[in-house]
Amino acid sequence: MQRIEVSTLEFLCIEPRGKATVEKFWVSDNNVEKLVKISENNDQDLMEYLSSIILKKLNISCVEVELGYDSLARKNCCLVTSFLTDKADVSYDIYDCEIIRDKDEEKELDLSFKQVFNKFSNLYMVTNFELLKKEYIRILFGKCLTDNIDSKLENIGLIFNEKTKQYRLPPSYDNGLSFNNFKSIGTKYCCVGKQYFETTKIIDYILTNYFEIVEDIITNLNDLNNELNSILEGFEIIPEKKKYILNYMKDMEQYINSKKVIRCK
Questions:
Q1: Which domain, by its residues, includes 40?
Q2: What was the pLDDT predicted at 182?
Q3: How far apart are CA 59 and CA 47, in angstroms?
Q4: DSSP for residue 9
Q5: Distance in angstroms (rounded) separating the CA atoms of residues 252 and 208
Q6: Cα angle, residue 82 at apex, residues 77 and 83 outer, rounded to 5°
Q7: Looking at residue 33, which CATH number applies to its domain?
Q8: Taking the alpha carbons of 249, 260, 57, 63 in that order, is the dihedral positive or negative?
Q9: What is the per-residue DSSP string for 37-60?
Q10: How many helices (H) and strands (E) does the chain have?
């Protein structure tokens, strides 16, 4: 699988790590800004790249990802094209979600979704709330389908354009932890806001309340699984993880198809 030699690209700046453990820095590749994420003895670069292929085939907006190699660090990496596509674009933080406690977990889940939607609806001068809501549901659904536990609201993000005064969600990004649970035999989880729920319960909630928003994704999932094996042939992933990915995606397809979907009015 071909990789880009990042040491030949123009270095721009270091990206602060924050809570992340992966080393990151910005480069310019033919005047396109790209974030380099160094893999620390793991396959996060491959998972970032693979998830971008899967999400695009599902018709879920996703960042452009390429594989790279840093000969200076002697490590593999991936390059993620900046999703700030306009000089007037700025990242907008809405990360202060609360943990909701209730005896009824279904109520907790419902309130967690509503908390995120309230964040969107209360944005200053927001005029496209329904679009933000739809984009969030599709991106979160994609995180569930790719077994990505790292689906906190801060890893979904928000962009504000200072010229148009419009908000939008960036394409799905920060997907290096996709299929990271392959060694776990326990329940799979995803995050709504910053609260974790069983992945299947999140899927149930979305199917029950927002089926029309993800209907095309479900159709595309059926098609994707028919070609996923051939897609994985080009990846240097250990056989056990390849098997896990194939089984997980197929299990998701079968689970969704087995549900009696209640369409939202």
A1: 4-81
A2: 81
A3: 18
A4: S
A5: 16
A6: 130
A7: 3.30.200.120
A8: negative
A9: EE-SSSSHHHHHHHHHHHHHHTT-
A10: 5, 11
Give residue-wise pLDDT tens across range 99-116: 888 888 999 999 999 999
Mean of all residue pLDDT scores within the chain: 91
Q: For residues 183 and 220, what is the distance between their CA atoms, to the nearest angstrom? A: 27
Query: Could you read off the pLDDT of 222-247 as tens digits, one per residue?
Result: 999 999 999 999 898 999 999 999 99
Pair 33, 62 in one domain: yes
Last residue of one domain, picked from the residues 15, 48, 81: 81
d(CA 230, CA 236): 13
Q: Above 60 in pLDDT, residue 248?
A: yes
Specify whether 114 is located in the same domain as 158.
Answer: yes
Local confidence band at 264 (pLDDT 50, 70, 90 cut-offs): very low
Amino acid at position 150, single letter:
D
Q: Is the pLDDT of residue 34 over 60?
A: yes
Q: Is residue 263 part of a domain?
A: no
pLDDT of residue 127: 92
User: Token pair for residue 171?
Assistant: 């394409």
72 in a domain, yes or no? yes
pLDDT of residue 23: 87
Q: Are residues 135 and 40 in the same domain?
A: no
Q: Answer with the one of 33, 56, 81 that is the final residue of a domain.
A: 81
Q: Binning pLDDT at 50, 70 and 90, where does residue 265 land?
A: very low
Residues 72, 96, single domain; the answer is: no
Domain containing residue 190: CATH number: 1.10.1070.20
Provide the domain count of the chain.
2
Displacement of CA 66 from its chain's centroid (Å): 16
